[in-house]
Design goal:
Nucleotidyltransferase, domain 5; alpha/beta; about 190 residues; seven-stranded mixed β-sheet
Length: about 190
């Protein structure tokens, strides 16, 4: 970035940055409409990043699904506070990454809306995230690892039918204990 700094002043750079757009503001759906998207202005960039992540990836047979926090101190309606994370305030991003190298294959920005618009009654947030992030892996025999936030027995059965294998932690009893167990579902 040093060559850019050598020929562009900070004031000029900020003016250019102010004018950059990745989506047409005149086409943005109105707040409250069915197709309203809080990330409308960034959606093409996020989709393009995911495409490029997949295109340049050397797919691994061992991947993981987890959350990541991106530090953000400004005002945002979907900023999260997670006191137990190293980055306590910011934007939560769901990520499918290589289990060894950490290469990101796919990501989704989490926007808490307080309601479920997925149309899938009885399917939890964790299962929806895993299904969305593993859609491109159908029939691949890839092994996915995740924690107990994402794990449900019915979701693991669905992944197995899609030839996606799972190692995850599960809660043994939600009412009596916070212990976790490891469940491994492998082909017979």
């Amino acid at each position: 970035m040093q060559p850019v700094a050598d020929v562009t002043s900070q004031r000029r750079f900020l003016k250019i940055l102010q004018s950059l757009h990745v989506n047409d503001n005149s086409q943005e759906p109105k707040k409250g409409s069915d197709n309203y998207d809080k990330l409308y202005k960034l959606r093409p960039l996020i989709e393009r990043l995911n495409e490029q992540f997949q295109f340049h990836a050397v797919s691994s047979s061992s991947q993981s699904v987890d959350e990541a926090m991106v530090l953000f101190k400004g005002h945002s309606s979907f900023k999260q506070y997670m006191p137990l994370k190293p980055t306590k305030r910011g934007h939560k991003i769901w990520i499918r990454a290589d289990a060894v190298t950490g290469y990101v294959y796919q990501m989704e920005v989490y926007m808490y809306t307080g309601k479920d618009n997925s149309g899938k009654a009885g399917v939890g947030l964790g299962a929806r995230v895993v299904n969305s992030l593993t859609h491109a892996l159908d029939g691949s025999g890839t092994h996915i690892t995740f924690d107990n936030f994402f794990s449900t027995y019915s979701m693991m059965e669905q992944l197995y039918k899609r030839q996606i294998f799972v190692t995850c932690t599960v809660r043994c009893s939600l009412r009596t204990s916070n212990d976790t167990c490891t469940v491994l579902i492998m082909p017979c």
